[in-house]
Amino acid sequence: MISVASAPAKVILFGEHFIVYGGKAILCAIDKRITVESELVDSATIKIESDLGTVTISKNESIKNVDSKFRPVFFIAQKILQQSNLGIRISIKSEIPSGVGLGSSSACCVAAARSISGLFKKTSKEEILKLALEAEKTVFENASGADTTSCTYGGIMEYTKNGTKNIDVIPNFYLVIANSKIIHSTSDVVLRVKQFKETHAEEFSLLCINEASLIEEAINSLNRNDLKKLGEKMLVNQTYLHKIGVSNESLDAMIDSAKSVSYGAKITGAGDGGCIVALVDDSNLRATLDALSKYECFSTKIDSIGVKEITP
Ligand code: MEV
């Protein structure tokens, strides 16, 4: 039997980094997916094939000996296979650029949790999320859970570490995403922000307050489909991200290129590299793609489905 599942990428529209310290974020799942296929095999091994390479590991190997690139998926497979004498072959295919803030590793954990557990039983989205987050934490201990939650449920949502709330609007916008191709490490950037927080305690706490009220205004604009206001707030959010040191000249230049033609633009995800996101509709989509044409860029719509099983 083969079990296949896919999960969407995500962008953080507002609230990255501040969310690690209890703030709210607005998350959007987008229509780029990662697909994981799994099949039980007779040998006691876990084989993982992906764009990052292929490994075959004993299913009893200690997790700490597994290359971090494969560790979360290995973790999920090992955990689920406890109930079986068999091994597994896992194949991962992705439309999501990796390491650039679009949640590729979270989407991979979510799709893998769905695909592998599907070999044995039906599993709820809540259980998938729990397993995927546990797996993600094998490489990024402080993960807030935002990315895995967005990839699991899809749509647009308000997110805090204590819960989520759907923002039930029919999106009248697209997101243009441009990739700086500067690979970053989310955990390193999160650590740097922690140091900023410790050395600039007062400034950081003021920024948290400002970010919180900005997000409430942004939710209001989203509910009213007011793209002009929403875009302005993205630009304000970018100034806060700049202050905590997660932007850089390359990202600033990309945002400058996008901001005069789109409704607004900002970093999405950890920053330090990765992607920027610009808010557009039919009236300025082409002009924004043109303005960003010297970068790898593409337009996306909101994914409203989240993780899904695929009939092979
Ligand atoms: C990374 O996509 C978002 C961060 O806020 C980290 C996290 O929420 O785990 C930077």
Short description:
50% of the residues are buried. It contains 9 helices and 12 strands. With 312 residues, the protein is of the alpha+beta class.
Question: How would you describe the overall organization of this protein?
Answer:
The chain has 312 residues and is α+β, with helices and mostly antiparallel strands. It is 38% helix and 27% strand. It has 9 helices and 12 strands. The protein has helices at residues 71-81, 104-117, 125-136, 146-153, 186-199, 201-223, 227-243, 249-259, 285-291, and strands at 2-14, 25-41, 45-50, 53-58, 87-94, 156-160, 163-166, 174-179, 264-268, 275-280, 296-300, 308-310. Strands 1, 2, 3, 4, 5, 6, 7 and 12 form an 8-stranded mixed β-sheet that branches. The chain starts with a strand and ends with a strand. The structure holds (R)-mevalonate.
Topology, element by element:
Layout: E1 2-14, E2 25-41, E3 45-50, E4 53-58, H1 71-81, E5 87-94, H2 104-117, H3 125-136, H4 146-153, E6 156-160, E7 163-166, E8 174-179, H5 186-199, H6 201-223, H7 227-243, H8 249-259, E9 264-268, E10 275-280, H9 285-291, E11 296-300, E12 308-310
Parallel strand pairs: 3-5
Antiparallel strand pairs: 1-2, 1-12, 2-5, 2-6, 3-4, 6-7, 8-10, 8-11, 9-10
Bound molecules: (R)-mevalonate.
(R)-mevalonate binds at residues 12, 16-17, 19-20, 101, 143-144, 146-147, 186, 190, 269-270.
